[in-house]
Amino acid sequence: MGRMVRVGLAVVVAGFLLWYGSYYTTILVWEVRKLLAWLALPLLTAGVVMAGLLVVRLLRRGGRKVSGTASAAVLGWLGAVVGLGLAVGWLVYGAYLQDRAYMASAEVVTEPVPALAARAPYVVGKAQAAPHLGDVTGEIADITYLPDADRFATLVERRGWLAGYEVGLVQEVPLGGVGRSQERCAFDVDTADARVGGWFGHNLGRKISAQRRWVRFDAGDVYVTCRGGTPVVVVPLKRQTGILVVTERPAGVALYDGRTGRLTVTDDTASVPGPSYPLSLAARQREATVAVGGFGDWYFERSGWDASEDGANEGNESEFTLRPREVAGTGAYVTPLTPQGDAGSIVAVSTVPMRHEGGGLAPMTVHRLDPTWSSPQALVALIKAEYRDVCCYNDDEVFEVVPTGGSTWTATVGSKQNIRYRVEGRGQVDGREATCLKAADGALIRCAHAAPGSPEERELAERERQKREAGAKNPRDPGDLKAYTPEELAELQRRLSEEVVRRLRGA
After folding, report:
1. How many CB atoms lie within 10 A of CB 376?
2. Would you state the pLDDT for residue 362?
3. Which pLDDT score is estimated for 364?
């Protein structure tokens, strides 16, 4: 009776520790499950070999004339060879099957990318966050673009081992205009004292595991938003599925109230003000496009696409969070893709919705481009060559080259504190990259090479027609120069220089 009590007490204590340590058991189960998926077949082979050895031993005990030593040695060597072969083979083929599992929701199309709105570059939003934090002493933990509000959200950690977050900042960083609205919402540091990666009871991951076990998250997916002055930390969650091929799936979101410290884990993501689908999961789906072909193509890297890594989009090379242009709809994670190998041109664009209902993978669409684009690094060099009068001097530089719908891309030009211009392109047309220079607010200035039939070509033709008509009425009167904008004066100066050069050459 005493032994049963001791055993029962040990079971209760062990169960309590497992429940109290839900955070660590969740991590342990995740890692062991991934490990077992890779070792399942080798372990199965080892089990078969052990069963064979057991059969040999039983036959020897039964008096059968069986060479136990020789049989055991043969089975042992055979099991070792087969197990090693299966282990190596499964490590390779299992990775292919995992990529194929992530490709289950993917579709490759030739339709153009849906129209997306340009936004301020990520590095600009990051650079402008610090000056607007005022006397905040914490450290910036995360910066996320919120497409619904067209704002950048900044999450600031409070200094200290046993501290949570200090403040959330949601600010407007416009491409054009002078708007600089911002909202700063402070955390109640005494009540809401948990954060991602915090110590002991101040660990937000521990609080999430206490409410819902077996779900995890990526720290890069976490962001903050302000609701009526109250900071809310949004944590998109993930779960594991599969046995031999283990993959991840969305599992709702956790909302942490920065005033009350209340944590809510929910599957209803419709009211989430920003991305609810984990960005890290969208990135994993995009990486799995290398398995669009067969196993041979996957192994020898002959199929699929990679994100461009030539340095032009430093700090944000993939999964650009963009919002729809002029139409209702959810935003998307958008990535320009290059073919595997040494080719640097952009040949496709992948899109994954930033919101998705249900526990399955969000649909990923790979849009093949026609015409294709030059690489982001080549586009930056082209912009500097074709628009030398606006780029790049002082602190100005070319920022992100991002897809903005159809077959167009947009690059922003200026400094981290002031975006002055944008350059839009439509791919390689007639042997040249079609590009046009526009003001930050989108007003067309000029084109180095306008694509035939494009809105820019039609607008330039209309301008030229109006100028000819005005010149025919009063050919020697240029009008009041004070009424000209700086861009129009620059254009007038450029045309005057070209005409002087032309006449000098003719003379």
Report:
1. 26
2. 93
3. 94
